[in-house]
Structures are given as structure tokens and as C-alpha cells.
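The instructor's notes for this session suggest beginning with a concrete chain rather than abstract definitions. Hand out the sequence below and ask the class to guess, before any prediction is shown, which regions might be ordered.
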Amino acid sequence: MSHKITAFVLTYNGEKYIEDCLKSLMWADEVMIVDSGSKDRTVEIAQALGVRVETNSWAGYGNQLNYALSVASHDWVFFTDQDEVVLPELAQNIRRELNGEMNYLAYKTGGQNSLFGHWLQWGGTIEANVRFVNRHYVTYCPVQHTYICEKLPKKTIKGVVRHDMAPTMIEWWDRSFKLATIEAEVDYAKGARFSAWKAGMFWWRFVRRYVFKLGFLDGWAGLYMALQRSMYILAYQACLLELDRSIRQPKEDPNTSKFR
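After discussion, reveal the predicted structure:
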């Protein structure tokens, strides 16, 4: 049995990336963007490509994903962020899965990051995320990552989504630390507090990625990726410490913050 699929993208002022992103999704039966108020040519570019356009005020990453699930035309959905591109191998394997029995309700796909013009292969940088689901059985949690709320068995589909994270190192680190801050504020509201032990373990994250997961094979890009992952822990814990000492005041609902 062949199943149909909707591929969608959450967009906001993404004119620089969106054309390549959408063209990499044209294998889907329906391609859709859910735009949260772009002021640039994002919507215009999507319309020129014949892509369905939906608009919804930003309600947080997980909530925006769930809105997209609710308006998709087909039972099966796949999504990317606006600065990502689906490689042909992954597209072919998803279509092959759709032509089969579909024994799972949620599927993971790999994501590959770029740094210094180099596509990272090592250091645990190709990470699997739940991007391909049956929308009637799955909901995304109201957090800044692609976590589904249901505890379901998952299958990983071979192939990757490529993510050109940021044009420069400064922009990449800025974006990463912004996410660390948002996550710390969200977790603080749930009871998380600063941990000297966890902050002190930043060095282990570096060693784990750079040495044991062979990040050094990616050269300078692998070194800086491992450093970023370890510094992320310090930034996250620093924000918790600021909140503990009332130096920082958390937002009313940090889940709705945008970092993409």
C-alpha cells in the first residue's frame, strides 16, 4: 500500500534559505510552509514554487509543529527547518518506507551540520531526530527540540538532512548560547537549578566528542564543534546560576522564544 505524505517547513524571514529547502522537498505529495509573520520574501518564494502557505503566530517550537500537524492534508508528515536541505538518499528511503507496511508511527532521520565549509562526519555530530510521523498518533512537546511526547518505538531511516547552521562562527555561537539560555529558563521553571557538578563536566563532553567519538577526524571544524558542545553546558549552567541569584529574570513563557 502506498501512503501519501505532507512535507512542511516552519518559516520566518528565511528568504536566504527557503528556495533550496523547498526544492529538496518536492518528492512529497504536498509541500507546505507554516509562516509566523515573515517580513521578507519567504512567502512569495514559496508561492512561486507552488507550495501551500499557512500562517500562524509563533507559539513556541513544539506548539508550532503541532499546528502544522493539525493542518496537513495527509496522515504522514515530514518536516525540516528553513535552513535545512533533504538529501536524495533520505527522500528515496522515505518514499520506499511509504510504499511498505509502515510498522512504526514515528521515524528518526539523521541531521548533518556544516562548519567552516566542511560537512561534519564525526564526533557524534550526525544526530537522529523524530521528523517523520503519523500526525494522528504523535504530538511534539512544547520545547525547543524535536521531542515527541509519546513513548513510541521508532525506526531510523538512512539518509540525512543537511543543516548549514550559520554563515560565521560568531553567529553560530550566538545562536547556540541563545538556545542554551532559553532551555535553562524553561527548565528553571520546571525546578532545575544550577549544578556545580554538571558545570564541571563540560570537559568530559569535549573529550567524549573530540577523542572517543573521533571528532578530531573533522579537523578544525571537529575541534570547534566539540568546544561548542562543551561550552553549551557552561552557558546553560551559567544561566541557571543567574536565575538562582536573581541576576536574570525569566521570561513569562520562555517556550515561545525564537532562536531559529
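Then share the key points. Helices lie at 18-23, 42-48, 61-71, 88-98, 169-189, 196-200, 202-212, 219-244. The longest helix spans residues 219-244.
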